């Protein structure tokens, strides 16, 4: 089962792997044509393919070309003028089809073309359906539903049916068969009146597109900032970090949370370093508690800050130090955040308070250990075998009811049910500060992505991509330089990914 969002991620990740999107369109269209041929078996029939202006229309154009090559009489009925075609690969396939005498292309919206056709293929609107069908799509679908065709096929999903929910607002194409791609969409399960029998076609999406985090995760899982956004709507983050010994770690995590897209980052630090940390950046709001390090005496004040600021996510750990009283305070604060169901990221010294077999969280905690810290938490030793290691991480995540982001040459991210890998990053990132940046990225992404697992995956990918971008452009790999290039890699992940890895 796969949602439309997940499908978009896989398609873009496939492009990141070097597979042109038009190849997927070609495979999709061919699969529709092959299925139609398997039902028709060479019968002399008249076929019309209704096409929209997006990618689904492109699939239909490819299907028309393949059916023509199998000696069927094929006509194409566009919903819109050719000048309105939005998808570049759809436009490419239209250019090809217009050069062929074997396929007749009609002017847009001519409903009479559907009359008497023995086969109607619906390639008007795929997984991008939103709400009620509007003209000219509604008129085409209504007319197609009136016709008593021998065979009606929907491409990917019947136009007008929401492939995630199965909802039909007003009207939708009524198919005998729906040829959907890669995997079954949940909305195709329960309404045979519209979907008919559902056939899943393999269009060649490589398993690596799903297994490894990629540019598609960044592009599609981080929503664009809404026009009516206000300060704080994209995230208020609290980070409890830093001590007299490690002031820089606190800044790196807080700054990274802002670069992840959060609106406000509140950095809670010991009073002794407040002025130092505040001088690093005016973008970060620094809030002090008494003393030189986190202690039990600071808990009530930190909770007061939290209750006033109502953060969307909290991170603890970078630079806190490992004094016994600090770890006691971290444990008490962790319990508070878990009880209040505030998403929480634990890193560095805070991880010393976690123990497999003792702790069980609420599914909203992200742990970011390296292999040594993971061993301290679980007593599991990570091997070089990626899949053996992933099983251990998955088991630990399930038993802790947490997301684990294991930092390694290939990162492993698991929530106990889903597990993904991240290949970005390089050995030059094995330096101070890069883990602090990662912590801030996870926290900053949580309110935007709305899912702690996917936020952890994207953070690992972006952190490593920034490090690889520095290496590719002959710049020094450091935590502060990663902060400098994060806006570039976050805003253009596919372009940067292909520049580095193609």
Task: Write a brief caption for the model.
The chain is an alpha/beta fold and 502 residues long. It has helices at residues 4-16, 21-40, 55-69, 88-98, 137-146, 192-195, 208-211, 215-221, 248-259, 271-278, 299-309, 324-339, 371-378, 386-400, 434-449, 452-472, 479-491, 493-501; strands at 46-51, 73-78, 103-105, 119-123, 151-155, 177-181, 197-201, 236-240, 264-270, 285-289, 313-316, 344-346, 365-367, 403-406, 411-414, 419-422. Strand 11 (313-316), helix 12 (324-339) and strand 12 (344-346) form a beta-alpha-beta unit.
Question: What keywords describe this structure?
Answer:
502 residues, alpha/beta, Rossmann fold, UDP-N-acetylmuramoyl-L-alanine:D-glutamate ligase, 2 domains, 9-stranded mixed β-sheet, 7-stranded parallel β-sheet, 18 helices, 42% helix, elongated
Walk me through the structure.
- This protein has two domains: 4-211, Rossmann fold; 215-501, Ribokinase (UDP-N-acetylmuramoyl-L-alanine:D-glutamate ligase, 3-Layer(aba) Sandwich).
- With 502 residues, the protein is of the alpha/beta class.
- The strands form two sheets. A nine-stranded mixed β-sheet has the order 10-9-8-11-12-13-14-15-16, with helices on both faces. Strands 3-2-1-4-5-6-7 form a seven-stranded parallel β-sheet, with helices on both faces.
- Helix 4 links the parallel strand 2 (73-78) and strand 3 (103-105).
- Helix 9 (248-259) runs parallel beside helix 15 (434-449) and helix 15 (434-449) crosses helix 16.
- The protein contains 18 helices and 16 strands.
- The model has no long low-confidence stretch (mean pLDDT 95).
- The longest helix is centred in the last third of the chain and has 21 residues, at 452-472.
